[in-house]
Design the sequence.
């Protein structure tokens, strides 16, 4: 009897079959012979797709969670600092002479001096946070990048000076408002200016202690629910604004069954660089545009958060044609170094401390 045609024996090889299935079946047929490696084509870098509505919502939420983002720092400074400045100005204007018979003149002068300079520092911190947002580097390289970088350096130096002043003035406030060794001023609570100063000092205590409390509360979460945290970050990550890949992007990358004599694995250890496990017969490997191969499950989880090769760090997407290849990276690196020095990312403790210093 005549043998059935190949396309009848393998209906999955029809034109409407998924690309991954076609590659896998073709390579399985080629590799089942006398030890010949399966033939496949290395994919070209992918084109990014427009973000979906869910991705845009995730981007906005993720931006709110990014405590080193200049816009988040500015809005946080406005939310915390401006109400204190307004209340302090009103108390000084309406209650300046309301405590002339309370305590001695030295104590009253200390309350007024501390409150005045504290409010002035809060206003200056808010202005500096707004300037840092104004001169922060934008995603597309602009023409005034060099001047923006110079202004950003000056704003960063001003912010560091205000952070140092905040710590010094915090200690002075404890000495003048809470550090009295005698009971000569037992009626200090009758002074509206004194009460306002103490409330602002308590707010400063809360801003300093809140990141520590949050870090301690997150220890059990990271110890026992780390996979949940990773999945949450992956689901919130915006593939277009960040560096992650969507499921549709991953489906466009071909898969190939592992073979001992694969051309791309010659001269390399036959193991996955993500899970550090040796490849075994029947394992499905994902082929990246950089010609590196990994376990499908391993590299898909990696690419969903960071769309670069775990080995060579090359992106799976096409580079932006508007970005220069030679001149932009050094300048961009300089701006990033200055920005990272001002607000380092990747360390939750440092980021939280930076938020406190920026809005206090």
Sequence:
């Amino acid at each position: 009897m005549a043998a059935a045609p190949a396309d009848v024996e393998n209906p999955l090889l029809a034109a409407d079959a998924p690309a991954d299935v076609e590659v896998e079946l073709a390579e399985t047929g080629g590799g089942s012979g006398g030890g010949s490696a399966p033939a496949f084509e290395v994919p070209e870098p992918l084109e990014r797709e427009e973000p979906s509505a869910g991705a845009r919502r995730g981007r906005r939420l993720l931006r709110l969670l990014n405590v080193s983002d200049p816009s988040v720092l500015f809005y946080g400074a406005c939310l915390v600092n401006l109400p204190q400045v307004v209340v302090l100005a009103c108390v000084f204007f309406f209650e300046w002479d309301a405590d002339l018979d309370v305590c001695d003149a030295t104590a009253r002068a200390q309350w007024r001096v501390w409150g005045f300079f504290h409010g002035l520092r809060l206003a200056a911190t808010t202005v500096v946070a707004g300037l840092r947002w104004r001169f922060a580097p934008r995603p597309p390289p602009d023409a005034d990048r060099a001047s923006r970088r110079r202004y950003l350096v000056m704003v960063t130096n001003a912010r560091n000076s205000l952070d140092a002043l905040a710590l010094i003035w915090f200690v002075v406030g404890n000495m003048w408002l809470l550090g009295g060794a005698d009971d000569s001023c037992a009626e200090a609570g009758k002074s509206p200016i004194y009460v306002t100063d103490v409330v602002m000092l308590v707010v400063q205590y809360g801003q300093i202690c809140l990141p520590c409390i949050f870090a301690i509360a997150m220890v059990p979460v990271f110890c026992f629910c780390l996979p949940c945290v990773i999945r949450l970050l992956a689901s919130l990550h915006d593939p277009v604004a960040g560096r992650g890949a969507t499921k549709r992007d991953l489906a466009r990358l071909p898969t190939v069954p592992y073979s001992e004599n694969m051309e791309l694995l010659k001269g390399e250890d036959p193991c996955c660089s993500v899970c550090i496990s040796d490849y075994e017969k029947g394992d499905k490997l994902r082929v990246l545009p950089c010609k590196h191969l990994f376990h499908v499950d391993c590299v898909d989880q990696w690419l969903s958060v960071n769309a670069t090769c775990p080995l060579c760090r090359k992106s799976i997407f096409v580079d932006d044609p508007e970005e220069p290849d030679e001149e932009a990276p050094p300048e961009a690196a300089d701006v990033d170094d200055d920005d990272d020095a001002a607000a380092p990312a990747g360390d939750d403790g440092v980021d939280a401390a930076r938020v406190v210093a920026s809005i206090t």
